[in-house]
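Data availability (excerpt). All sequences and predicted token strings are deposited with the supplementary files. A representative entry, CsbD family protein, is shown inline so that the format can be inspected without opening the archive.
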Amino acid sequence: MNKDQVKGVTEKVKGKVTETIGRATGHRKQEVKGDVQQAAGETRKKAGDVKEAVKDTTRKPV
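Structure token line:
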């Protein structure tokens, strides 16, 4: 796992917490902010997945 994957997952979790708090308190703006954080985290995780796949394919076999 590379740093982009870790940061992406972390951002998704923070977004889920923010969304849940917003939903529980009826604060629509906070709920939307959580949704945006989750989307950003997913994007970053996918970028990390791509980097990892490229790294795996460029390694020379032993």
